């Protein structure tokens, strides 16, 4: 099963169907900022680009790719004139394109830093896919570059804009399960083609943890609203398998939070799951799937037997809401709820997870 | 929620209803061995004793208790003559009672060793509740005592006789999910009364791990069919809470098995869960609840979307099947599938879990 097949289960029809009327922040000016999409892979072209249609404050105005055919195909499909199509060599000329407000970096992880820095230098705000970079040091450099340029930086943590996840966070904050005591979350898929960039350390920065396990980590952080203070980890990788010559397969990790909340997080390239359960003395909330492109499902046991639960509807799907959030932050001078600092926090924990697994000890943060 | 309320969810009517005709091992002699129940608490009197009714090779013939009223009440209820009722002081006289073949020890954990030794010395076979004892050393002593007496020793791992668990093991062994890569399992309940014996270390040997987390550990072992080679653990206990003066609340642990299979196991006294999911490259199997007295439910994703699954029916409920298994082993000269060695293996890992948490390092086994 490919990552796209797994995360995309049920992505077909109806993504935008049933979306309630869009609701703007009250003071947000009634205009759309222009996005350049940098990197025209599957996620950019099949998942993100179609979702500008539901955006209120965002529009697709430019494309950046190393593949001329892709620029032509998607340029024609989305009505992007040749003047707004860039190669990686010509990308820096985007500084002269006033239609572009934001560059959305959707490249392999190892290239996030350089393109973020180049975009900031060109005076553009930046949306960058997760993981933000392949090291905490790179994250810090990206934050500094955007700060120096006076531009905003947001990381593509789309689940923060997804209805079931929003509902889970709200229930927890409202005390529905009492204090969070235990989170169990697993993210993984069976990875295929051994030649893909995800399995090349220079491009990916790591294996399942960088790619899919980061969802377990990020969920544990947003569900508790806390930063972990201690990390354990255990890796299981068959290095004789051609897929895992350079990066890890399974790396499971445990987190301890200041309140006493705990998390057990799974990350795998040889198992298919996408779930979390958050438990406290008064009950639990479960999402399964939890962070997929579509099809989230929630059960909760809140003082009674477990029962399915429908979250409060959100005005926009997670992708459109994510795109618009950065636009709205720019238009109103606010900070994104998932800024570069958020990406850095994940990378700091990720580095601790790798260290804990390597050294066989609890790493304090 | 009390432990009994949680594990017993739905225990009410129908436990024996719909049970298929009992099916004996082909060579098992057609008679019933006599059990003495030692310790007349909730589990013994409400869960175990009523289940002799469905047994084929086991009958209740004697009672042992420190409380005269209980001996009278349950003696009358089950037609046990006064000659077959023992106090802890008179218990050793059971050596002279030929009606008693087996003593089933259902006391607080800290008393398992002494009563097992006394039963063996009286020439009786022993069924002992889990955890087998409060230390691996005690387990070894118990094994030695029964061996010396030429008597069998079995530990009350009832889930091994439960239909959904049997089905999960079979599916895994048949390769339905491919090699086991990841197990996620959580067992816990919100413990109440701070004065109960479970929260007194001398009687319990430890907190949630000894009481309920052992289900997570044992499941990880029977689902993989392997013994762990490395253990990580992380504890979270509010020692200022009157319930947790002596024993731990949450202790989560990670296991690594020789095949590369991994397990993340939760154990808690401040959260309610009872579940496991076993995942491999070809699919997953989930039980939720997994190890309750009643009401197990199974879902599986085996090359398709997740779907509920009904296991093959078992001839007897888990309690009657467990009782009969020891009788049948005695009658036919076989070793129980969950002998004293099985209990010892859990205790060795439990000691490693406590050590890993205390020392903040991976403990190799």
From TrEMBL, chains A, B:
Keyword entries, A-Z: Oxidoreductase
Database matches in InterPro entries: Gfo/Idh/MocA-like_OxRdtase_C, Gfo/Idh/MocA-like_OxRdtase_N, Gfo/Idh/MocA_oxidrdct_glycsds, Glc-Fru_OxRdtase_bac, NAD(P)-bd_dom_sf
A Pfam family this chain is assigned to: GFO_IDH_MocA
Domain Gfo/Idh/MocA-like oxidoreductase N-terminal residue range list: 34-157
Highest taxon listed in the record's lineage: Bacteria
Domain Gfo/Idh/MocA-like oxidoreductase C-terminal: 170-365
PANTHER family per record: BCDNA.GH03377
Protein's name according to its UniProt entry: Gfo/Idh/MocA family oxidoreductase
